[in-house]
Amino acid sequence: MPTDRLHVELGQERPIPLAVELECASGEMLALVGPSGSGKSTVLRAIAGIYTPDRGRIDVDGETWLDTRAGVRRPAHERSAGFVFQHYALFPHLTALDNVLQAMGHIAAGERRERARRLLERTNLGGLESRRPAQLSGGQQQRVAVARALARDPKVLLLDEPFSAVDQVTREKLYEELATLRRDLSLPIVLVTHALDEASMLADRMCILHRGATLQTDTPLVVMTRPASPLVARLVGLKNIFEADVAGHDDERRLTHIRWFDRVLEAGHAPRFAAGTRVAWSVPPSHIVLHRRDRPSRGERENPVAGEVIRCVPMGAMTAVALRVVPGERADLFFSVPTHVARRNGVETGAPASVSLLADGIHLMPVTRAS
Amino acid sequence: MDSTALLLSLKLAALTVAILVPAGILVARFLAAREFAGKAFVEALFALPLVLPPTVLGYYLLVAMGGSSPLGRWYEAAFGHALVFTFDGLLVASIIFNLPFAIQPLQRAFEAIPDDLRHAAACCGLTGAQSLWRIELPLAWPGLLTAVALTFAHTLGEFGVVLMVGGSIPGETKTIALAIYDRVQGFDMAGAGLMSAVLLLLSVLAIGVTFLTSSRHREKRRHAD
User: Fold this and answer.
1) B3-224 — its CATH code?
2) Structure pTM?
3) How far apart are the C-alpha atoms of A274 and A264, rounded to whole Å?
């Protein structure tokens, strides 16, 4: 087992339920994603030692920071964790340089200033060393917070929604800066965010958290397109989640057939579900292709589904469409098409339309009633 | 002008501040940062001197520190003289009746510091003491100043408790407040007036400094925001 990684196991029932297990390797960025109240920040705080759960074990780089069974509870100031708080928590009475210097107690006094200066330069704050937090913009404050977190030469970097308090333009700049900074860092980085796009853009893997429990951890692509359960599918924003029965498997063509109302659909091969099993299935909007009215379009023979447009909302360049494919049933497909395509194909509320559901996008999951 | 009484009062006030304020910092910080069963009771206990009649407080202190009490007996065995009717006894009483004046402004000041700043200090590797010294006290200093000024001014002016516990012994327990009372009793209105003016001046100065600095602090914060 590699030692230069972060391993976290947390458990408790109250006041915040926790059932967490996660790993993060050196140089890896793991995004903890979940709705507000899912316990993401609590997990981060537990790693830093500013929150102590009832039960748990935290190992970082071969050191045990928490082991409730063995009675090990290393206090926060003895854990080498760099923490960027959501609102940065900069010391308001100290300059940017002094903020960074506070985290350099482990370095020889003579070298601190020079290293703090270099860190501020690395986070693009050269020339602003003597400013106090109130004299800095939101983006600059975030950079001071990152510099301060790195000043401790931490064994793990913890980022608690670090981009939520800045405007969109600054945010995109900060994304780039973090991605650049990351290249030179070889430590586990845990990013807490509720923004899926942020997680999939920055993180190597993401972990979906719901009511304090880790539901699925994988690469953003896998989590977003192959969620482990209907609950994860909903949490990653998939709207097209339905139930069907497995009709059979076509091992040669690597397909699984599912019966959905009176249709049989081809889905990605999922031999783990026996024929006759009730399953949940999802399809991302990117795998729903609108048929052209004038001539056949791509994949027209692949799971063709016709229905009635029940909602059509133009939102700038894209138009959101809801298609009712089974009259009287709540089985509506949601997808987006470019607004000009919608217009050209006469997609409007009440009009008929047909789409193809691309088989490799149809993902089967076990049905979980509890969720 | 009873300069002995004035000096005694200043000495009592200075020593009360020197002992009570550092202890108050620790108590106030603890109360501000922690939640525990019975916290309201502890807070009420520290606030009690605010509402208790000084003579009542003085009576209980007299009983608690008297020669027949465990504390009084222990003190006499250790230091060779009684605790009541001495300057030491007066100092103990002064610390107790000033508890709310020191603790409350400090507690409010520590409560105003966001939890995340304390957490950030810990994540920077600062110990509790370093966090207090470098981060929390610099942010809580208007509260600290208020605690010092209120404790100092209130000690100079306290009458009931001082009379009960100290007994107005010249050079030992006769404070300026008691001296003023004595002068009025002896129809020396001019002497009482002079000493009252000195006390008034000191009190105005203490309160003035507090208000001036805290309003400046507020203004600075407003500009900073």
Assistant:
1) 1.10.3720.10
2) 0.84
3) 16
